[in-house]
Amino acid sequence: MQKNLLKLILVLVVISFVAVPYVILAPERAREKAEEERLFKEEIARTTAEKKTYLLGKFDPSVWPDFVQIPFEYTVARTKMYLRKETYASYEKMRNEALKSDIILNIASAARNFDYQKMLWNNKWNGITLVEGQKLPEIFPDELERFRKILEYSAAPGTSRHHWGTDIDINGADSIYFDSEKGQKEYAWLHQNAWKFGFCQTYDQKGPNRASGYNEEKWHWSYLPLSVNFTEEYKNLIKEEDIKGFLGEEYVPSFNLINNYVLSINPDCV
Ligand SMILES: [Zn+2]
Questions:
Q1: Radius of gyration of the chain from Cα atoms?
Q2: With contact defined as beta carbons under 8 Å apart, do 84 and 70 qualify?
Q3: Is the pLDDT of residue 3 over 90?
Q4: What is the CATH number of domain 67-269?
Q5: Ligand 1 center to residue 5 CA distance, Å?
Q6: Which sequence ranges are marked TM in the entry (predicted)?
Q7: What is the mean pLDDT of the chain?
Q8: CA of 162 to the centre of ligand 1 (A)
C-alpha cells in the first residue's frame, strides 16, 4: 500500500515537472507565434506593395537597380532612355545581328515611368499634343469618347508595359512610318528574327486571337523572359482602383482596362 502511494507521489512529481513549465510558458509561446505570423504577413504586404509600385511604374528608372542607360547613338532622338539590363543586352545582340542585313534598329521609346506616361496622356487629353493633327478636346468634347480615342495607341498611366523596362518601341511609333518602304523592310526583319532574341510583337493585328485592346503596333516589342512574369504579376496584384492619378481617371471603370487592354496581347507573348 505504501509502495503504491510512493509510486503515485513519484508520478505526480514527474508530471508536475513537465506540465507546470508547459502551462506557465504557454501564453509566452502563443505570443511568440502570433508575433511570427504578424511579421510574416507584414513581409508579404511589403513585398506586394513593392511589386505593385514597380508594376504601376511609380519609380525612377534612372536610379533603379537592374536598369541601364541606352547609349545615345542607339536612340532615335539621342535622348536619355533606360531599360532593364537583360532587355538591353538582348536588344543589343539583336541590333548587331540586324546590322549584318543593313537594318538599323534604334530605340524610339524604352522605360517610361508613371509620371512620364501621365505627361504623355494628359497632353493628349488637354490638346497640348495633337492626335492625328487635331486637338482632342475640340473633336471629342465628350470625355468618355476622348478617353477611348487616346486608348487606340496610348496606355493610361499605370497600365503601360513601358513601365517595366521590358518593352521597346523600335525606330518609330506610328503606322505611317511602318507603311513606308524602309519601315516595311525593318518590320519584315523583326517579324522574322526578333523571337530569336526573346522579343515578341505585343500588339499584333486585332482579330479572333485578340479581340480588344490597342491597335496593331509594329514598333512595340516585349522582352518575354522578363515580361511574361510581370504580366502575370500584374494580373494577380493590380486592381482597377490602383489605376488613377491622371486626367479622365473617373472613366477608368468604363473600359475594363486590365482585361481589355493590359492583358489583351498577342497570345504568343504570354
Ligand atoms: Zn510602345
A1: 28
A2: no
A3: no
A4: 3.30.1380.10
A5: 87
A6: 6-25
A7: 94
A8: 6
Distance 144 CA to ligand 1 centre (A): 23
Per-residue confidence (pLDDT) for residue 2, from 0 to 100:
72
Residue range 89-117, pLDDT digits in tens: 999 999 999 999 999 999 999 999 999 99
178-230 pLDDT, tens digit each: 999 999 999 999 999 999 999 999 999 999 889 999 999 999 999 999 999 99
- Output the CA 172–ligand 1 centroid distance in Å: 9
Query: Ligand 1 centroid to 1 CA: how many Å?
Result: 93
Cα-to-centroid distance, 101 and ligand 1 (Å) = 24
User: Ligand 1 center to residue 12 CA distance, Å?
Assistant: 77
pLDDT at res. 1: 59
- Ligand 1 centre from 23 Cα, in Å? 64
Ligand 1 mean position, distance from CA 169 (Å) = 5
Q: How many Å lie between the centroid of ligand 1 and the Cα of residue 167?
A: 7
pLDDT tens digits for range 73-91: 999 999 999 999 999 999 9
What are the boundaries of each domain within the chain?
Answer: 67-269
